[in-house]
Input
Amino acid sequence: MEETLKRVKQASLTMAYLTSQQKNQALAALSDILETKRTWLIQANAKDLEEQRGKLSSSLFQRLTLSNEKISELVRGLSDLQGLKDPIGERTLHRELDHGLTLERVATPIGVIGVIFESRPDVAVQIGSLLLKSGNAGVLKGGKEAFHTLQAIEEIVKLLNEECQFLPRHWLSFIGSRDEVAKMLSQDAYIDLVIPRGSNDLVKSVKAQTKIPVLGHADGICHLYMDRNFDISEAIALIHDSKAQNPSACNALETLLVHQKHYDEVISLLRRNKVGIELIETPSSWSVEYGDLRLAVKSVLGLEEAISHINSFGSHHTDVILSQDLVAADQFIREVDSANVFVNCSTRFSDGFRYGFGAEVGISTNKTHARGPVGLEGLTIYKYVLRGHGHRVADYMGSNAKLFSHRNLEC
Output
């Protein structure tokens, strides 16, 4: 493992100075290879689906499926990513400290990122493309249930490397066993950031095993609060989209809070709907991510109780208010402590692709470095660059000390 990570670390140094043209060329080539190998990918995925049929929950089985539609979405994401500005080298601070002494803060890649994910093999392509565009190298560990699909994706990366010789050979490496994961998590000299994508147990396990910074979220306990002044038919449509459009997604609705004025009518309409959502009015816990067509529901007195419930039982992922009262909406935005806070729309918009990030490596509920859907910007850090002309600290000390100007310049 150490030798593998040394090679990935070395590759990261080359990735850091690839040009924007080279990155976009590689993304275009990856898109073409995916199109060429589309049938082959689906056949590999079919082997995984056959082996896992009856062994996985319906939500995990759905995530494991790599359909034509998902491949088309990956291709669209690659196209969008090519159109995004390269974040590396962007100057976010430009300040004159004194005449001829200027300070810059410049975006740089993080370095080597380890990503551990469950079930969803398409994540490997999304993450790989974001690492490429942001100039990072990566080590990926997918779930054993996606063995054949991930093998096919690894072969696609090899084809990409052959076509784009400027890519360092080990810029994206795959590991297979849990033992290798444990070894990787011990190598803080070579891994700069770990991103776990999966269950609460996975995230907790990763955090317990490593000194490396961990970026991610443990649960997707998303809420929707329907205020007293919102149209009921529109609310029902948004509730259905948030819950039933893809119930296994981490941004799917898990708890519905309804103003007591409309509670009985809303519950009655939801029970009559053909989607088949099971309503749970007395859950054993309000902090449950169901991942299927079950929905916890609660009548609340108003906005304050809804906000208190969300901050007490939520996972700080995505929370929504449906309200025509702009003052109430602003209060909800201000007081709900979540990475994504929405007004009058579905929770399912909480997604890097839909935000225009091209894709995402995951959604973070952290309060350091990156929060919400993590795209290109979340995969960068920065360095400070100081340019002078023989400037000495000694000249700025003592009774005759020169003064700093600290004048901000255009970035």
